[in-house]
Amino acid sequence: MITRQDCEVRDQEDPLFELRHQFDLPPGINYLDGNSLGVLPRATAARVQEVIAREWGMDLIKSWNTAGWIDLPRKVGNKIARLVGAGPDELVTADSTSVNLYKVLHAAAQISKADAPGRRVIVSERSNFPTDLYIAESVARQHGFTLKLVDTVDEIPAALNAELAILMLTEVNYRTGYRHDMKALTAASHAAGALVIWDLAHSAGALPVDLKGADADFAVGCGYKYLNGGPGAPAFVWSHPRHAERFWQPLSGWMGHAAPFQFTPDYRPAAGITRYQCGTPAILALSALECGVDTLLAAEPMGGMDALRKKSVALTEAFIALAEARCGEQGVRLSSPRDANQRGSQVCLSLAAPLHEAGYAVVKALIARGVIGDYRAGDPQRLDEFPHILRFGFTPLYTRFVDVWDAIEHLHQVLQTEEWREPRFNQQDAVT
């Protein structure tokens, strides 16, 4: 079995280890929740303070020009594009993931109705992140489409039929960490005559993404997870250039206008991806997001996303091996794919009966010990298929191999001592 000394050696030999110093990591905290909220980059506080004190405080409205505020959505978007295989000026930062998904779903529905009017089905996974399903349900109703949800990955091929208009998937499933084959599924969908929308919330900044190489149609993604942009950071939206100018996006705000400062009463959409902006950009949040994206770009001289992915696989493999060796007899089960090629940068564990309802309390007990993961409730009627999940994210920029070892040791102790039974760990918080 892997020892803590083995992990210390791997950290010493890790060429990416120096990137950890880009972050303010609280002492005594073993943070394995970067898939929900990334750690604060050290550069962020100073940069945001500069925007507040000098650009806003001293230069005031002039900073839209002198500090380049007006260009930030495209500037930060071009940096993210380097991480997800998009071209220059094809991706823009704006709004939230939910809002951007609404934009591209609406655009895809319009394209489908124009090119293949007989198609009226949007397909996604029942286990997709709920906001994606809620937005898809709304768009389906507006356009006279039907939202069809598949229960398993194996059901997707049969759904790629003559009725399909849009396949909408999150590349890395938030519950299980399952990683879809973007290129293969996009090709199969196109062969069936359908469009594909990818949510990159759990893949952008965590693993290599190649939107253009996969010939994807649309993509959206999150700024506050692996991109380290801070709570509520702006999201991003991408359209393949062949689609970008075919239709208006539905939220035709002034920042998506071809000439917003001409203040004309009629709307003329801007060229390309710029039309996917809507209202005034959030400059403080965008400035923080840029700092977060820069922490990932710092890895480019060391191999970039390929190097980060290699370390991510090593971290998750070590975590799985230790979890099964130390906690398998205590009922811990792997709920993520065992094959690293089918797994994102997270590992999900579940507890076998009679402990299958104890997951929330176990996670709270771990948090009290300084090991930060999170919990996602399953389906009480179908726990064999959709169990309660103890979820752990691995961010190669700052997660160490000793963090993996320590986390499993704490998990072993929480289960062995039944510490999770304490009443304080069984009180439900608003956010899990």
Structure description:
This protein has 432 residues and is α/β, with parallel strands linked by helices. The chain folds into 2 domains: 4-41 and 304-426, Aspartate Aminotransferase, domain 1, CATH 3.90.1150; 68-297, 3-Layer(aba) Sandwich (Aspartate Aminotransferase, domain 2). Helices cover 38% and strands 12% of the residues. It has helices at residues 4-13, 42-56, 63-66, 72-84, 97-115, 130-143, 156-159, 182-191, 211-214, 241-244, 283-297, 304-327, 359-368, 401-417; strands at residues 30-31, 91-93, 121-125, 146-150, 164-170, 195-199, 218-221, 236-239, 332-334, 346-351, 371-372, 374-376, 389-393. It has a 7-stranded mixed beta sheet, sandwiched between helices. A 4-stranded antiparallel beta sheet has the order 9-10-13-12, with helices on one face. Helix 2 packs antiparallel against helix 11, helix 5 runs parallel beside helix 6 and helix 12 (304-327) runs parallel beside helix 14. The radius of gyration is 22 Å and the shape is globular. It starts with a helix and ends in a 15-residue tail after the last helix. The relative contact order is 0.16. GO terms for molecular function: kynureninase activity; pyridoxal phosphate binding. This is Kynureninase. It comes from Roseateles toxinivorans.
Percent in helix: 25-40%
Domain tally: 2
Oligomeric category = single chain
β-strand number = 13
**Number of distinct helices:** 14
Distance between the termini: 32 Å
Low-confidence parts = none
Q: Looking across the biggest beta sheet, what order are the strands in?
A: 2-8-7-6-5-3-4
Can you tell me the overall shape? globular
| Full CATH superfamily name of the largest domain | Type I PLP-dependent aspartate aminotransferase-like (Major domain)
Mean pLDDT: 97
What is the level 1 CATH name of the largest domain? Alpha Beta
CATH architecture tag of the largest domain: 3-Layer(aba) Sandwich
For the largest beta-sheet, the strand count, sense and barrel status come to: 7 strands, mixed
Question: Could you tell me the radius of gyration in angstroms?
Answer: 22 Å
Strand content: 5-15%
**What would the CATH topology of the largest domain be?**
Aspartate Aminotransferase, domain 2
GO cellular component, one term: cytoplasm
Pathway: Cofactor biosynthesis; NAD(+) biosynthesis; quinolinate from L-kynurenine: step 2/3; Amino-acid degradation; L-kynurenine degradation; L-alanine and anthranilate from L-kynurenine: step 1/1
GO molecular function, one term: kynureninase activity
Catalytic activity: L-kynurenine + H2O = anthranilate + L-alanine + H(+); 3-hydroxy-L-kynurenine + H2O = 3-hydroxyanthranilate + L-alanine + H(+)
